[in-house]
Amino acid sequence: MGPIGAVTEPAPRGRFPGKIGTGDYTVRDGTVLLVDKETGSPIDRVRFGRKLKPGEDAKAVACVLTRQRLSKKSMDFNRPLYYPRMGL
User: Considering the entire predicted model, what is its pTM?
Assistant: First the structure.
C-alpha cells in the first residue's frame, strides 16, 4: 500500500482553483485498488480498480483512478459555474 500524491480535477481555470484529491492504493493479484485510508479496505473494486499491464507503473495507475474518483464525486449539479469575462 502506498500514498498517492495530490491530483487535481477539474483543472484550475480562471478564478476556480480546482479540487485536490489524495488517497492510498494497494496492488493485489496484479490489480491496482484504491483503499480507504482509515480501514485499509478496497473502495469499489469494479469502478476504482484496474489490472496492471506489463511495464505499467502502479502509482501512475492509482493517480488516474484517484482522478476518476474525484471527478465522480465532484459531479454536482449545484457546483459553482465560472464563465470567462466577456468584454463588450
Answer: 0.65
